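Duplicate of #3305? Posting structure anyway:
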């Protein structure tokens, strides 16, 4: 059930043919981003798409009161920023590195050329775009209809899935800052702190500093109302 809240393009690159991979790699311009450094900002005109090689990137919007709402967190292996290119519109959100990250930039002209040349890449990306819209609709529904406790449980489950897929270790530790986690849940940091302490007292999670380990995924899934 958690899959409907997670984009599915993380393994898209690996599923491409060797020829398609080589076409993309030839035009990729790799850049290192520091923690908290923006990759692109809402309202700017896109001039290419991005492929996250290492690290994690958050996708968020800022409301009229200046509050940040995290929509999604990208893992290594995911493409992002392509919906603005395909819709021929400005970026509808901001992306920012939440840890030191390595990002490959693919210029717009090269991206569109490769789409024309590779039916497989075009098909995969359009399928991913369709799924992304579905994920966004599901997340918006959760934000509007579920309690803060339910949203907190769901956010932890989503993050567990993201950190597990990027970590080969047996123990999955969520290291997102409390501010970012509160922005993902859509609540105040103080409210999030109380819920996390409740989860800890109920032996659902273990906290060590900013690190969170889920101990009872089944109960958290029930709390998230999945």
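Output from current build:
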């Amino acid at each position: 059930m958690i899959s409907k809240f997670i984009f599915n393009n993380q393994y898209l690159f690996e599923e491409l043919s060797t020829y398609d991979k080589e076409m993309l790699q030839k035009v990729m311009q790799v850049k290192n981003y520091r923690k908290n450094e923006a990759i692109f900002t809402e309202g700017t005109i896109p001039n290419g798409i991005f492929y996250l090689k290492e690290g994690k990137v958050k996708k968020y919007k800022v409301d009229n009161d200046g509050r940040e709402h995290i929509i999604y967190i990208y893992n290594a292996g995911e493409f992002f920023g392509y919906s603005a290119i395909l819709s021929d519109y400005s970026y509808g959100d901001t992306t920012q590195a939440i840890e030191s990250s390595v990002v490959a930039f693919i210029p717009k002209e090269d991206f569109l050329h490769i789409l024309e040349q590779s039916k497989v890449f075009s098909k995969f990306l359009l399928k991913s775009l369709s799924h992304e819209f579905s994920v966004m609709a599901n997340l918006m529904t959760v934000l509007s209809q579920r309690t803060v406790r339910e949203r907190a449980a769901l956010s932890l489950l989503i993050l567990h899935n993201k950190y597990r897929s990027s970590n080969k270790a047996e123990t999955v530790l969520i290291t997102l800052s409390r501010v970012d986690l509160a922005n993902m849940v859509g609540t105040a940091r103080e409210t999030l702190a109380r819920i996390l302490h409740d989860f800890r007292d109920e032996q659902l999670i273990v906290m060590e500093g900013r690190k969170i380990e889920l101990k009872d995924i089944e109960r958290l899934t029930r709390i998230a109302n999945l």
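Confirmed duplicate; merging threads. The chain has two domains: 2-143, 147-223. Strands lie at 29-33, 38-40, 48-54, 57-62, 68-74, 79-80, 94-97, 101-107, 205-208, 211-214.
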